[in-house]
Amino acid sequence: MKNVYFIGIGGIGMSAIARYFAFKGYRVSGYDRTPSDLTLALEKEGIDVHYEDRCDLIPEDVEETLVVYTPAIPQDFGELVYVREKGYRTLKRSRILGEITEGQSCLAVAGTHGKTTTSTLTAHIFTESGAGCSAFLGGISVNYGTNLLMSHTPTVVVEADEFDRSFLQLHPEEAVITAMDADHLDIYGDHAHVIEAFKEFASQVSGTVIKKYGLDISPSDTGAEIRTYSYNDPRADFHARNARSDGFGHFIYDLHYPGGIIEGIRVGTIGRVNAENSIAAAAIALTKGVSPSEVKAAIGTFHGAKRRLEVHVNRPGCTYIDDYAHHPAELEAAISSIREVFPGRKITAVFQPHLYSRTRDFAPEFAKALSGVDKLILLDIYPAREEPIPGVTSEIIFKDVTSPEKVMIKKEELMDLLRNEPADVLITFGAGNIDRFVEPITQLLK
């Protein structure tokens, strides 16, 4: 095999695998729907990317070409139909990740939220400590500026995605499970099937499952040892005590774990939610033998993952944070963390709903979570892979939001609104193309 061709190369998970094969010396190219920061970065790294459905740009040598595709690509997409008809070897992204990690010490982080930050921090701890790891991440590490880390050690950290049951292609040695909320109901149908998939994932772990305290994973679900973590529940195997803020949004705590106490850990990223993520990452590192002092040091030097409570402007009277949250539980966690960090300040949130099906399935929960801000600016739904669903618009969220101020606008109107109405603490939320506004908003506020 000489060529690896990607259909949907600009996705965060796909681009990491594309970089991996380029690093290994294969000729890598691919298609994506629109240019983005990620596709432009891939092009700068020497990977050919095109943005039209062009079968003629697929490597012609069928026997020497592997085609990797994302489940977000429609089954009737021209290039995908073509490679199947011509007999190319085609694999879903999740399957190829399973093949890459086979035979290695796979440390997987799963969960309906928290997994990107936790996996990125886990990879940072192993890298900083000198233990080393490769890593396939679902976000861009701020420390390393990439979603792929390469190492010659046999340890590989993977963000295990539950969408399309992708994580069931993995057989980890150790796994963290951060949350099992109802999500991706277009795939699973109901919450019970989401939980069932996580139990199946846990059954494929050979060493240790580290679950958030209270999650419904029991010894009957897995042959692995089960350990628990929590922000502050003393019944968990790994938990914080004496937690306090340093006055700038960073939490300091003493970590109690089965081997003792690590005093005075300062979390390099802001908010309670990141303090909890750091406990999960510490748990997997300590379980794998990283020393307590190295764990403590690495948590302090971690700068987060892009679009995860990422602070872009922070000066007296003006703060701007961007976050990927696109599920009600994520929004609630992020908003409560920001309230705690910036007490007494006016919080304005810009939210772009992601997927018609998710908006339909969770409209009341979205309205409840977003009612926690002082002002809501609600944008149209970002469709991603979906066709419109009759009657499903942002209005079904908007009508039930109880914030003191709320407005629903098209994204083209956003910058004008922000120019005319300066915000105290501004947050942009969403998993769609709202990230295109991060740089213009940052420049406006600076």
Can you walk me through this structure?
With 446 residues, the protein is an alpha/beta fold. It has three domains: 3-92, 3-Layer(aba) Sandwich (Rossmann fold); 102-301, UDP-N-acetylmuramoyl-L-alanine:D-glutamate ligase; 310-445, Alpha-Beta Complex (Protein-Tyrosine Phosphatase, Chain A). 32% of the residues lie in helices and 25% in strands. It contains 14 helices and 21 strands. The chain has helices at residues 12-23, 37-44, 78-86, 93-101, 115-129, 185-188, 191-203, 272-287, 292-301, 328-341, 356-370, 395-398, 414-420, 438-445, and strands at residues 3-7, 27-31, 48-50, 65-69, 89-92, 105-110, 134-136, 148-149, 155-160, 174-177, 208-212, 225-230, 238-245, 250-257, 260-270, 310-315, 318-323, 347-351, 375-378, 405-408, 425-429. The strands form three sheets. A ten-stranded mixed β-sheet has the order 8-7-9-6-10-11-12-13-14-15. A six-stranded mixed β-sheet has the order 16-17-21-18-19-20, sandwiched between helices. Strands 3-2-1-4-5 form a five-stranded parallel β-sheet, sandwiched between helices. Strand 1 (3-7), helix 1 (12-23) and strand 2 (27-31) form a beta-alpha-beta unit. Helix 5 (115-129) crosses helix 9 (292-301), helix 8 packs antiparallel against helix 9 (292-301) and helix 10 packs parallel to helix 11. The longest helix is centred in the middle third of the chain and has 16 residues, at 272-287. The model has no long low-confidence stretch (mean pLDDT 96).
Topology:
Elements: E1 3-7, H1 12-23, E2 27-31, H2 37-44, E3 48-50, E4 65-69, H3 78-86, E5 89-92, H4 93-101, E6 105-110, H5 115-129, E7 134-136, E8 148-149, E9 155-160, E10 174-177, H6 185-188, H7 191-203, E11 208-212, E12 225-230, E13 238-245, E14 250-257, E15 260-270, H8 272-287, H9 292-301, E16 310-315, E17 318-323, H10 328-341, E18 347-351, H11 356-370, E19 375-378, H12 395-398, E20 405-408, H13 414-420, E21 425-429, H14 438-445
Parallel strand pairs: 1-2, 1-4, 2-3, 4-5, 6-9, 6-10, 7-9, 10-11, 11-12, 12-13, 17-21, 18-19, 18-21, 19-20
Antiparallel strand pairs: 7-8, 13-14, 14-15, 16-17
